[in-house]
Amino acid sequence: MGAVGAGGTGSPVQDMEASRRKFLTMLGLGIGWTGMMGALGGTGVGVLRYMLPNVTYEPPTVFKIGKPEEYGMGVDNRLKKERQIWVVRNERGMYVMVAICRHLGCTPNWFGDQQRFRCPCHGSIYDTMGNVVGGPAPRTLWRAGVSLDPVDGQIVVNFTQRQDPDPKGTPEGLIVEESGREVTPFFVPLA
After folding, report:
1. What is the pLDDT of residues 120-136, one digit of tens each?
2. What's the CATH class of domain 62-189?
């Protein structure tokens, strides 16, 4: 075997081994990089699926609760657990109060014998109009948006539309005049 000149690469066997080695190296690198990119891509897809789920399990924020005739005078407690609301009917009409205490977000209970909503967590007390008559709550109870469906006459509640007037501090508690709260869309006048 002679010396390899400047233009030669060696024997044909060495050239074939070098090209095979180079091919296998490139193949290995290609498979490795493809695998890594696939893993990173899969991780990215997984992160996006986590951030944007297919289904939300939240209840609808606008819903129907029946016809006005189904609700008697006073506070109706039947939708407190299912929808977190109380339906209140007086001689002028009806409104819906959100069953969330304005102190720390607990769920107050209705005591019909006392005509009061009482929060079991920290002792906030509200009257049937949502005014604060005792305890640490800094604001009155919210009233949800309410209207009558023109097609079937059912009460439509918009849970995210909330009335939050500024109360006045009095010796009786934080009070909002009822005439200021009985306005559309937070009150449905009934004849």
Report:
1. 888 899 998 888 988 89
2. mainly beta
